[in-house]
């Protein structure tokens, strides 16, 4: 392709438009269309199955357990002792579907206190235990 180059002594204004970038873009688009059109038009004709949308099974409420820095356990914001915790978890574990147990532990809590709660959940037959944490701060 031809290109006009102005020299320093030449005071004339160049009136022609540089179409090289436009041609490059159009060629790329042409290549994309040439590649994708045969894929779309040459498919095997099949009859797809019809699917009815069924409502999802509702999940039971999760059991919220909290352990403070002294090791006290709270069930939905009410303090509870170890024997009562085991009895309540055994009652909850037979529900179908079984609810999840969410444990929120204070940052200063000893691992032993959290471990006792996990062991109690396992003894009660709870299969899903998760920990609630604070998401990291964004930015700086």
UniProtKB/TrEMBL annotation:
Bilayer-crossing regions: 20-40
One Gene Ontology cellular component annotation held by this UniProt entry: plasma membrane
Subcellular location: Cell inner membrane; Cell membrane
This protein's UniProt keywords: Cell inner membrane, Cell membrane, Membrane, Protein transport, Transmembrane, Transmembrane helix, Transport
Matches recorded under Pfam families: ExbD
GO biological process: protein transport
GO molecular function: transmembrane transporter activity
Description of how the protein assembles with itself and partners: The accessory proteins ExbB and ExbD seem to form a complex with TonB.
Functional description taken from the UniProt entry: Involved in the TonB-dependent energy-dependent transport of various receptor-bound substrates.
Name listed for the protein in its UniProt record: Biopolymer transporter ExbD
Lineage: Bacteria, Pseudomonadati, Pseudomonadota, Betaproteobacteria, Burkholderiales
């Amino acid at each position: 392709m031809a290109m006009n180059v102005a020299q320093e002594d030449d005071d004339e204004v160049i009136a022609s438009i540089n179409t090289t970038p436009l041609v490059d873009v159009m060629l790329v688009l042409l290549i994309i269309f040439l590649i994708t059109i045969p894929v779309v038009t040459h498919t095997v004709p099949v009859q797809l199955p019809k699917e009815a949308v069924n409502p999802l099974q509702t999940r039971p409420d999760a059991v919220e357990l909290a352990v403070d820095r002294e090791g006290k356990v709270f069930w939905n914001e009410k303090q509870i002792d170890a024997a009562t915790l085991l009895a309540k978890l055994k009652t909850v574990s037979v529900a179908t579907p079984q609810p999840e147990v969410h444990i929120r532990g204070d940052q200063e809590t000893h691992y032993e206190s959290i471990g006792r709660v996990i062991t109690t959940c396992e003894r009660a037959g709870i299969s899903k235990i998760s920990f609630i944490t604070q998401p990291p701060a964004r930015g700086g």
